[in-house]
Amino acid sequence: MSNLAVIGAQWGDEGKGKFTDYLAQKADIVVRYQGGNNAGHTIEVENKQLKLHLIPSGIMYKDKICVIGNGVVIDLKALIEEIEYIESKGISVENLRISDRAHLIFPYHIKLDILSENNKGNNDIGTTKKGIGPAYMDKVSRTGIRVCDIFNKEVFASRLKYNVEEKNKLFTLLYDADPLDYQSILEEYLGYAEKVKKYVADTSALVHSYMQQGKDILFEGAQGTLLDIDMGTYPYVTSSHPISGGVSIGTGAAPSALDKVVGIVKAYTTRVGKGPFPTELSDEIGETIRDKGHEYGTTTGRARRCGWLDAVIVKYAVRISGITDIVLTKLDTLSGFDKLKICTGYKIGDKIIEDFPASLETLAQCEPVYQEMDGWTEDITGVTDFDQLPENAKKYVNRIEELSGSKISIVSVGPERKQTIVRHEI
């Protein structure tokens, strides 16, 4: 296995949780490298379902070290609640490690997120309102507070006081909202510090040590390629780097550390929130895909917008992240359709383009160029061998492989670990 990254190759919600868990069987350490509790990864094993937001998807294995890297922004209240939730399922979190360099989310980040979004009206971004963006803003403006800071009471108190005072000016003068109380936040977070102290470590050194020992490392991303702050559909993006380049930034591992990049691709396309979506189906077919695929957010419960597979997006993700292997998920959702479509390019006026544009205004003008393919009616949720799939299902998978430029190594036909078809070992 060596060192590999698992990334979302579309707009997120591709099924990364299942396959981080699945691939973690061979790993010694699982490292989450970006995002916050705006992410949601669902794992199902033997009728037991686990919904995770911050803790890496390898936590169900007793022998795996699970790391929250420095690129993650952490809401300590949410993290402690997640720890308690996992333990209530009879699962130990003793192998959890939290980077001492990770930045923290505070109540003022959440309040600023809510006020800012509400103030934008119809121009809102559609954030989860969990303070993710404002926490990354403070990180970049060099006023953020890191995990290591909360264990030095004097330093923490001073930095927190400054931040609360600054944010309260925004709340009262700009938004005409009530200020927050510094003292109550200080006491609350000092309490959190005691609860998480045993998990905190220099995780960059830990990851490096595992590499030196030749251990297998799995880097877990959240969200997806088109939500990357630089390479995504800006401004309808997250505030971090879900692409493979985010691994080095978010963990302290050298860029040369990765041996493979596994791109998770849903057999159709979904998106949450606003922004252009060339293959979106605002009709009965889109509704059917949403219902069959249970396309509702793990974190927010929001209904996802659904459409045909966009191979332009997948090819783009392969290029910018160096995807070596694709895991195709939710193929079973497409059973029962007479015809399926794959977008192979975009038409703008009389011009056909095959590269994903930067401008949202350009993307909004793009009409999908479709290849239509015959569907299948068989239930494929119990299939474990690729050759046993219906002929049209195999043709559909093979065509995606041709268009993407990367091999499809695994096909998923259901949420359980066992509902997995391995074509090539990763």
Q: Can you walk through the features of this model?
A:
The protein is an alpha/beta fold and 426 residues long. Helices cover 32% and strands 21% of the residues. It is built from 12 helices and 20 strands. It has a 10-stranded mixed beta sheet with strand order 9-7-5-2-10-1-11-15-19-20, sandwiched between helices. Helix 3 (107-120) packs across helix 4 (132-140) and helix 5 packs across helix 6 (182-196). It is globular, with a radius of gyration of 22 Å. It starts with a strand and ends with a strand.
Pick out its properties.
426 residues, alpha/beta, ten-stranded mixed beta sheet, 21% strand
Mean pLDDT: 94
Tell me the radius of gyration. Answer: 22 Å
- The termini sit apart by 6 Å
> What percentage of residues falls in helices of 4 or more residues?
25-40%
Major sheet strand order: 9-7-5-2-10-1-11-15-19-20
Strand content: 15-25%
Number of helices: 12
| Shape type | globular
Number of strands: 20
Identify low-pLDDT runs: none
The major beta sheet can be summarized as: 10 strands, mixed
Structural class: alpha/beta
